[in-house]
Amino acid sequence: MRDTGEEITQIGMSVFQITSTSVFHHQNLGTDGKDVIFLMLSLLVVIAGSVAIAAKNLHLPTLMACLGMQIVACLASFINIIVLLHNLDQYSTHCWYYSQGNQTTYKNDCHTLERTRNHLFAESMLIQVTLLAISVTLAAYCCKVVNCCAPAPKMPVITLQNQPAEQ
Hints:
By secondary structure, the chain is mainly alpha-helical.
């Protein structure tokens, strides 16, 4: 039996991403169409982590399902990284509106909000890269175990016996 730390981490980080994205969407702080895609792909990563926990018993069909779901999770995490990069580019700085006149309070608040938004994007990007690494690791593990659990290839083995040399 192997440890389930990676699977629990995969599920926990994905649930965190789903929760934070849902909160931002509910507060009208996200992009509508991309949030739904991000949520659906994060849900696929949660399902992949659940299947990986189920594959702990090393049952061959479950391991094959785990391998397939981890490959899907790799793709989902990669697409989520692209969505995050696009969202970061979409939210450009808006503080230049407050740079005119004597509105230093608004300007300071705007810069504080910008820094906070950048930190949240960096956190989300770090989580997505971690989820991609976990998915690749679990897919590699499942691939390795599936080959070990599969029936041995039918390959003829030829043995040679040397005659003892006469003295």
